[in-house]
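hi support,

uploading two proteins for the ticket. first:
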Amino acid sequence: MKRTITFLEARQLTMKHRLAVRKLYDLKDDPIILSIPASHQIYTAFEGDQPVAAIAAERVDYEGRRSILLRHEAYRDRHIFQGLVDRLFDQLSRETIHETSVLLQVKQNQDQDKLQLFQSLGFTAYHESLHYVLPLIPYEKEAYNNWSLTLVEANSHSTWLHHRNLYAHVLSDILPMSKERLQSYIERGHVCYTLHHDGKPVGILRARIGENDVNVHEVHVFGGDDIMQDAISFLQRTFHKNLKPSRQLRLTATSLQPELQFAIIKQEPLSKQPAFYTMTTEITPAVSYAR
């Protein structure tokens, strides 16, 4: 019996079908399908009336260049999912006149079949992101008198972005960040900090503060081993002091930040969990022949 597969962007779906796509995901992995941001698309595949595959794409523009960030992959049939991604790549190649970088964040769940699937689609592994959970502890140390953690206000966004983008290639989100993209994070409840030592910037953070934890999505400390170690314990102390209802500090670090990971491990994290792989590929423009 012939199978009828329909490929649709989520904005073309009725609310009933959007809710059906949502059921492909765990609650924590929901790609905001009920209220899709303007820069996002969610591509879906249906077999009859049932969703069988979906993936979210975010178009990221920076200094005249466009990159595509793919996340929230979900499928019940890998062959249909592969067809969905092939169609997406074909569409992207027809929309661009320049080579376009595509980044894929794949949840790390020891599913080697999934990694092989994306490799067959042309992706290569770039780095791995890991989640660490540290207790908030009221450390006291004379050296902390030389440290400060500053909330970044709107008039300081350019300076923070400059430092952040210098080290973007080692962060969990490796794309350079524009003011517009930073603003979209702030509107979703994220806050940015600059870490200072002896009055000089030595680190950047992007975090979201919850009821029970401080979730640091991006962190980088640009200094020696001593500065790195003191930086982590200073963060534990600062968030304990300022946010007493919070009990844990969650940090995301990547395999391209070995010194940072070592400093975190020395602070005896409560847990360490693989988070996701970042994989990359390039899309070339489709050849167009003028008549």
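and the second one:
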Amino acid sequence: MTVFYWVMGLAIAGTLAPSALYLLLYMATGEPACEQRARTLWNVSRVLVLLGVNILIWGHVIVGLWQIWFR
């Protein structure tokens, strides 16, 4: 699970940082393309967070059930 945490953390940071950068560019310039990129990267970041939380929760549920049934 440690590898999973690192991979998800890097994936989330890899989409969150550019999203913030494009949001700042949009605020400074008013360019619509920057707004679209910021929205897209923000949505990808949210999806990755939700995926990570779901895998985290269900992974623990499966491990717990495995230990109950096969110990």
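thanks. also noticed: The CA atoms of residues 8 and 44 lie 12 Å apart.
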